[in-house]
Structure of DBR1 enzyme:
Amino acid sequence: MKVAVAGCCHGALDKMYETLELLQRRHNVRPDLLLCCGDFQAVRNEADLRCMAVPAKYRHMQTFYRYYSGEKKAPVLTVFIGGNHEASNHLQELPYGGWVAPNIYYLGYAGVVRFRGVRIGGISGIFKSHDYRKGHFECPPYNQQTIRSAYHVRNIEVFKLKQLKHPIDIFMSHDWPRSIYHYGNKKQLLKMKSFFRQEVESNTLGSPAASELLQHLKPTYWFSAHLHVKFAAFMQHETNSKEELPKATKFLALDKCLPHRDFLQQIIDVEHDPNASDSLEYDAEWIAVLKATNTFVNVTQSSWNMPEKNGLHAKWDYSATEEAIEEVLEELNHDLKIPCNFTLTAACYDPNKPQKNMEPVHTINPQTTEFCAQFGLTDINDRIQQAKEEGSGRGECEEDEEEEMDSTGSAEEPSEYNTDNSGLSSFNPDEIMLDEEGGDEDLSTCSVDPSPDHPPEFSTSFSDIRIMPDSMAVSSDDATDSNNEELEKSGGSKQVEEKSSTERSLKRVGGDENGNSGIKKIKRRNQAIYAAEDEDKTD
């Protein structure tokens, strides 16, 4: 089976599918499946644009809406995860996954499906430690904090994935697993992206949560995007016992959507079951894990740790037994086919009747309602609405609660990662940096510039700037991780912004408010990044 893998397509679906069709005409290569590793941008209308965490100047309609409306249909089954530049309100409708358009399937916050016998898993979003232990409390209309925290990875999703015991063939994450760069041509990587050096040498580039999953799941393939650079690695895993067969993972990080010559190199042959269904299917073990962990659904901002074998929890193993898996199969009459139950849940963009003042609303998607009813799961969005109505949600969606958005809960409760958030308070470097760049206006009045026929060059807008936090293991990690988003949105070097946000947060805690030197350093460092972008534009 031929599987095409794409990096950040930034809503340019026409371009992506046209590239695949060109491959077929010129090289007689036709993929059976297309995987996209985040920043898919399933934008249906102007309200969705307002829920995408990018400066207003990058809010362009692109072409997804044509597939959502039915004007066009994806020529190949497409499965994708979320990144950090998404219409978060749209994807939030499908926390357990679902169809965003005919033949285009979203894996949800985390998910596992099967296609022709191949197990495909993924986790959406990017890692940010100060949101990692919170629940999924966000809902539209978002404020300046929740528009970003909505796409941050949560520990509940990692915990669920770690309950899987059966082998995974393909796994996707948006940000890279931390340390993966040590298993590939690191010298060439740093030659292409010299500003990664500090993070690579200090082993702080990438997501520690993704790294944990990589070591646990040991998939045959792992695909990521986010940093806009192509990079391959081969990781040989350690065995836990003499009886266990050695396993290895082939890692590939994808660049942004590329010309057909490069796209051809991103098509792999994957062994599949010729007798398996040609339809996308549920994974019985994953459904069983969802059922076993359903009681952990959290829609509050309170920080909490998942059960561990540390003497503090009576139970920590929520993996699916063979009996539980068989029970799922019986519930489905051994028919695992995912129903083609796509439903329009929002008005579609009409280029002849633009509605720049359209406001986002919190929507419960019928697909999620049906899925939860079928398997006895909690509809996260329904729970959020209940919390709002009962007044017990602590105002998760109210803007007057912004100062609480960075709360990390009880200081006595240990985190799963060695992170110290004590120097952060409610300081949000995302907003400040975006404001400095003039990119993030009030969400209620931001301008929208749909241009479906002449889309902007997103590849240049975001190239060379998707750098993960300078450190996620020191007091500045939350602030620096935020800079990953800042830079992706404002076009600067994350590594540099990490330094400035670190300096600012430390100065704030120490009472020194004369923190302008960090900003100057950012601007000087950005000159090198912008120069790199200019080089990309001329290539």
Summary: The radius of gyration is 22 Å. The first helix runs from residue 13 to 27. Residues 393-442, 444-539 have pLDDT under 50 and may be disordered. The CA atoms of residues 460 and 536 lie 7 Å apart.
